[in-house]
Amino acid sequence: MSIFRVERQVNGVAHLVMDDSSRKVNVIGEPAIADLERAVTVLESDTELRGVVLMSGKPGSFVAGADVNGIAAVTEREEVHALVRRVHAVFGRLAALHCPTVAAIDGICLGGGTELALACDSRIASEEEHTQIGLPETMLGIIPGFGGTTRLPRLVGLSTALDLILTGRSVDARKAERMGLIARAVPAAWLIEHAHRRLAELEKRSAKRRRDRYRARGFMAWFMDVSAAGRGLVLSRARSMTLKRTAGHYPAPLAALDVIEKGAGRAVDQALVIEANAVSGLAVGPVCKNLVRIFLLSERAKKDPPVAEPSPAPAPVRTLMIVGAGVMGGGVAALASRNNIDVRLRDLSPDSLTRALQTVRSLANERARKGKGGARALDAQMARILPGIELTGVRRADFALEAVVEKLDVKRRVFGELEVRLRPEAVLATNTSSLSVTELASGLARPERFCGFHFFNPVHRMPLVEVVRGRKTSDATIVTATRPDSW
Ligand SMILES: NC(=O)c1ccc[n+]([C@@H]2O[C@H](COP(=O)([O-])OP(=O)(O)OC[C@H]3O[C@@H](n4cnc5c(N)ncnc54)[C@H](O)[C@@H]3O)[C@@H](O)[C@H]2O)c1
């Protein structure tokens, strides 16, 4: 089965197309590596070739990353090491082809996909929203080990490389262009045309100068990214910030810093040896195994049906009623309003309501400072929340969440007030941490539409909600609570 196709074009350029027909998205695992070895041999033997465009055969999706199931399964350090070195070798052959190479990225390009693209001389990417480029490996307890830890600093400079590798965040094409990660962001429709143009530009350069590489712009950038004193400063600051953030529990970001430090100033081949040693140890360690397990479980939770098939259709949730504007109610109000849900927020205490609105505003401000959403988005978000001390507007709610104090009798009173006002098809939920959902449901007129909907504190940092089924909770309630039509 072929995963990579070599398609010779009339102008002497070859398209190296990755398209794994057995999968929805391309991933870099052993079968892909074996097939890349075959495809690169074909390219190497074509001495007439003027250039290679690496692309995906899957519309709107480049390469999702390394095969995470493979990482989960491997237990022997030597096995990881052998595979990593094999990847280094074949990516190295791609990097050393006699003609220029350009990766044309459209869609998700993460981890091993980014590392494959980094082996090319240059990269261009589509400006579409679905194009996201990044190296999320440290979030899985490893470092970018298919050449990313070595090649990225040489392309974008030390500071930018640390930002991307240590946070694991991905960036769109425009940001990638500003960082120097790609040469150009272009509309998707012209991606391949631009890739050919880029090849023509590279063809004019001598083989030695063909590869895009970091050039410090200005004294400050030179000092931080190039000078020995500046680099030492940047690395030691990154190390102490990482230690502070992780309390030393996560070895991967620290290993990435070590590999970058030790590899600096060495030839790529020598630096890759250091990279391979580091990633092989991490990949079989307990932190990696646990982080990969969490990743796989959350992927499964997104896909597995929450109830037996055929499952009822989920109802849309456009308006959320929250009763109790304390720590949790305020946090949920912030999350829901940010996700375009209209929120009615009710509390007996005006002070609680004021504090909750302050929380929403300060969280939105924090996001704006990180470049996510501007002043207009903040105003729109605030306008979506209607606070009040009276229980009004309940009939409009598709979902009502109780987040008052942890006392059975107080909660029961709140349910009583809500039930008589809620539409029959609306969901009624509790954020209780410790009380029994079945017990809380007793006395309700419609226990089938009641469930536990347990957020964790702080809501904006904890990407987990526990949906709890009571003895009488219906499938329809569970489906709407886990996967609403419009959440
Ligand atoms: N704080 C946590 O870490 C956490 C985590 C998960 C779940 N929970 C659960 O979430 C719920 C709320 O916890 P919290 O920490 O936000 O509490 P909190 O004390 O911060 O807030 C409770 C709010 O409910 C209001 N309230 C009390 N009775 C009311 C009523 N009859 N009508 C309207 N408002 C009323 C209070 O004025 C207060 O503002 C509890 O069930 C708790 O077990 C808490």
UniProtKB/TrEMBL annotation:
Keywords carried by this UniProt record: Fatty acid metabolism, Lipid metabolism, Lyase, Multifunctional enzyme, NAD, Oxidoreductase
Pfam family, any one: 3HCDH_N
Span of domain 3-hydroxyacyl-CoA dehydrogenase NAD binding: 321-481
Reaction catalysed by this enzyme: a (3S)-3-hydroxyacyl-CoA + NAD(+) = a 3-oxoacyl-CoA + NADH + H(+)
Catalytic activity, EC: 4.2.1.17
Keyword Lyase: yes
Name this polypeptide is given: enoyl-CoA hydratase
UniProt organism field: Eiseniibacteriota bacterium
